[in-house]
Amino acid sequence: MAKAVTAADLRGLSRADLNAKVLELKEELFSLRFAAATGQLETHGRLREVRKDIARVYTVLQERNLGIVADPDDEKK
């Protein structure tokens, strides 16, 4: 079982890494939903964790868009 990501960890990633992370989490969420629908899912708590992880990634991306947090991609240029 994967550990939940923290916003502090996500802030150190680039935009490309964050977008890749969202895709990875959405694929995991799809497989968890599929398992839940077929009755094969044993722990439903992971569904909630993955949804919250996706929200964290989107929050970090939005902070960068609004200029609340400095974008590490901009500092490298």
TrEMBL record:
Q: Which Gene3D superfamilies match?
A: 1.10.287.310
Tagged with keyword Ribonucleoprotein: yes
Q: Name one GO cellular component term.
A: cytosolic large ribosomal subunit
Q: Where is the signal peptide, in residue numbers?
A: none
| One GO BP annotation of this record | translation
Highest taxon of source: Bacteria
Q: Care to name a GO molecular-function term for this sequence?
A: structural constituent of ribosome
Question: Would the keyword Plastid be found if you checked this record's keyword annotation?
Answer: no
Please report which protein family the annotation says this sequence is part of.
Belongs to the universal ribosomal protein uL29 family.
Name this protein carries in UniProt: Large ribosomal subunit protein uL29
Native organism is Propioniciclava tarda
